[in-house]
Amino acid sequence: MKTKNIIVCLFLLFVAQAVSAQNNAETLVRIMVDQVKSHKNTEMAFSYQISPDGKNYSDSEEGHAWLQGNAYKIEMAEQQSICDGTTIWTYLVDDEEVMVSDAYEGEDNTPLKLLTSLDKNYVATLTNIDTQGNATIELANPKGQYKRVTLKMNAMKALLKSADIYLEDGTKIVVTVKEMKYDQELDDKFFTFDTKKHPNVDVIDMR
After folding, report:
1. Among 53, 67, 96, 183, whose CB has the most other CB atoms within 10 angstroms?
2. How far apart (Å, rounded) are the C-alpha atoms in residues 113 and 98?
3. For residue 116, what are the domain limits?
4. 150-161 pLDDT, tens per residue?
5. Residue 3: what are its φ and ψ, rounded to 5°?
6. Which are the contacts of 77, defined by CB distance < 8 A and separation ≥ 6?
7. How far apart are CA 54 and CA 121, in angstroms?
8. Lateral strand order in the sheet of 202-205
């Protein structure tokens, strides 16, 4: 109830423009991040499009992601990224290759890990909020892998709706959240790559 009251107050402040857009954006992003971190794990179903030049987009495809502490798993059509907090397995489905590398704490190297670092690593600015409480927030981090992120979220519930992610090479990734679930029962080996289930995969150890 306390969190709900805080969000309602924030929304009223947005509409009344009683405080700066900068402070509104940072506070709202912090509440959203804290909400994700308050759960044992987060499961997200999403769709995504990729544009190498920011103008022409690939067909929309479905993806699925899980986050639990420093561990995560992201499943997309052509690639899977799995991390147990120490090791990262990048599985290229069509090439039947999996690249193994070390995980580095604090890096925003996946969209899901990016979500939980927004309040620490990015400068947030509120650019728009409509009468239904849908906010658009611009985030910038010149030193990050993702230089700029545009978030669209429900300000009343502090829930992410979509994110436009801009990479250093000019590539743009558009992620639309379809469903969020929390506190799922996950097996101990859920955040590891099982080579026994993929006997034909070529393992490339890059550590």
Report:
1. 67
2. 20
3. 2-183+196-205
4. 999 888 888 889
5. -60, -40
6. 61, 62, 63, 93
7. 23
8. 123-129, 134-140, 146-154, 159-167, 172-182, 42-51, 61-68, 71-75, 79-83, 87-92, 97-102, 202-205
